[in-house]
Structure formats: C-alpha cells, structure tokens
Amino acid sequence: MGRPPCCDKEGVKKGPWTPEEDILLVSYIQERGPGNWRAVPTNTGLLRCSKSCRLRWTNYLRPGIKRGNFTDHEEKMIIHLQALLGNRWAAIASYLPQRTDNDIKNYWNTHLKKKLKKLQTGSEDHPREGFSVSQPMAPRGQWERRLQTDIHMAKQALSEALCPEKPTYLPELKPSIGCSNTIPAPSTYASSTENIARLLKGWVRNSPKPSQTNSFMTQNSLNNMSGTDSVSSEGTPTPSKANDKDLIASEAFDFLFGFESFDTSHSDTSQSMSPEASLFQDESKPDSNALLPLSLLEQWLFDEGLASQGKDLLSDFALDDNANLF
DNA sequence: AAAATAAACAACCGCTCATGC
DNA sequence: AGCATGAGCGGTTGTTTATTT
C-alpha cells in the first residue's frame, strides 16, 4: 500500500547502540514511560528510528531481562514449545519470563537447531530441518485456532491429571533469584546494558502511568519481571486480558514444564499473561475440550513424563507426534 | 602470531495486525 | 468502510568474538 517507512533513511544511525545512546533512551523512558516510540527519536535527539528504539528497549534495556546461558529447563521449554507452536517466538517467549523473543530465536537458531539435528542425523535417514519446517502450515487463522485449542486442552487436562486437587500449582515455586542463571559477563557492550536497566530503578516513581508501571517495577524489584514484549514491554499491559482463568491456565502450563523461575505471584502472572494464554481464555469454555482427541495430549504427556524422569529429552522427543499435532 | 573460519548475537527489514480517525 | 499510523513479529543480515589452522 506504499506505506512510508517508519523513519527516514537519511540521518538515521544504524548498528550497535552506544552506552550514551542507551542512557539517553533509558532516561527518556524513565521520564515519560515506554510508548509513543515515534516521538522518542525527536524528543531524545537520538539519531535512531523509532523502531530501533523500541527494539533496543524491549530486547535489552527494559528491566527484568535475563541474559546469559539458558537453563536446561528453558531449553527444554523452548524445544517443546517450538514443536508445539512453531517459530512463533513471541508466543514462546511469553512462557519464558525474562527472555525475549529475539533471544529465544537466536538461541534456537544457533544452538538448539543444531543440537536436535545432530541427534536426529544419528538415527534417521532423512533428518528434518527443525520442527517447524516439517509442519504443514495451514492458513494462519485456522492453524492458530487449532493450536490454541490444542494447547488449552493440553493445559487443562494436564492440570487435572497431574494435580487435580491443587488450586494453584507449586506453592514452593518461588523463583530462585539469581539461581542457576547467574549472568556471565560477556565482554561486549550489550551486557552492560543490564546495568543501564538498573538505572531505571525508581523510574516508575516519575512515570506518568503509575498503575501500570508500579506492578512492572514490583516485578523488577523481585528480579522476576516476567513480562515479555508481547506483554506490555512498553509499560502498557494488555488491558483486561488477564484474569483468574488465564492465571490458572497459565499455571497449568507452567506446571507442565515445571518451570522453576516463574514468579507465581498473581500480580506477576497476570501481568505477564501471554497473548497466547489470553487467547486460551476464549477457548476455555468447558466443552471445547471435547473437540479434540486426547491422544495428542497423551503423547505429549508421555514425552514430558520421560523427560521429567531424567531421560534425555532430545533423544526421546517425539518429533513426529508433536509435529503432527497440527 | 596472524589469518581463516565458525559461532554467537545484536540489529535491521519488511510484513501484518490493531487501532483511531 | 477506508485510510493512516503505531506497534509487534519473524526472518535475515551484519558485526563481533572465539576457535582453529
């Protein structure tokens, strides 16, 4: 439709961000709060396009982002979710608090894909090129619909099967702050952005959107900011999407993966409710369960069960079955 | 020690979707 | 209803860093 570019090509700086630029951006956001990205370059004097500013913020500068090595659990989740969701990194990221879609995507492309391929080539004549590739893609709407239903069904059945009496899951699931994921200190500048993010401590105090950003900051102070870019990384949480039902569904799903660093505080979880999860809400009508065969779930459960028994997830991972979900 | 290569990751690009007018 | 715009997403590219020769 000939939409004009978000920013003029001329006079726009590209490439890695400098600490100065980061500070400019952070202090601006500290003052005004995230959002209205188009105005950011103008108001800050940054020679960056608005998109770049938003990306920089959401992927690196915003508080609560965990960097560094992925834990086994995270890795496991990514593999499972990728098989389930395909390359929908934002959706996957919504289940990995503190990780950005970009981060996950990179990790998948650089580590997991190879890892899986390696494992597959050992035992197969014609290795697949990653799960997503092998998945027949239906038109997006249709595919997504089915996906949501599948996931919802799995979540619900799992929560019933695994902890039928449990109103909320894993009460002791307190995030192990600073646990296994102590952030290594890469030498690149990017790592120091974390420090810049810390400059934001207290920025909410000045924020024009206290009700939204307060919880945001609370999460940060807990070192468990579970938001993702899809969830209000801009400080504008998706309004009214999170509710108790979402929470339960999310918890069930989290329980499924036994994700240990997920903050279980309700405010957090509701804040971080993924779009995916919020979509489940639509699917969460009781009779939606009857729409799909349980065999899929059973298979999935089986796989997870094996994995949880300490077996090598990758070798046991039922690629075909997961791929055939759709 | 230097060059070549591979790996990792940050950032960009283009498309799509959501929203407001 | 149609258009303009902001924002989100996923794929891809470019740059930096690590490893090998």
UniProtKB/TrEMBL annotation:
Subcellular location: Nucleus
GO cellular component: nucleus
Major localisation: nucleus
Entry-linked InterPro entries: Homeodomain-like_sf (IPR009057), Myb_dom (IPR017930), Myb_TF_plants (IPR015495), SANT/Myb (IPR001005)
Protein name: Myb-related protein 306
Region (Disordered): 207-244
Any one GO BP annotation for this protein: response to auxin
SUPFAM superfamilies: Homeodomain-like
Myb-like domain ranges (all copies): 9-61, 62-112
Domain HTH myb-type: 9-65, 66-116
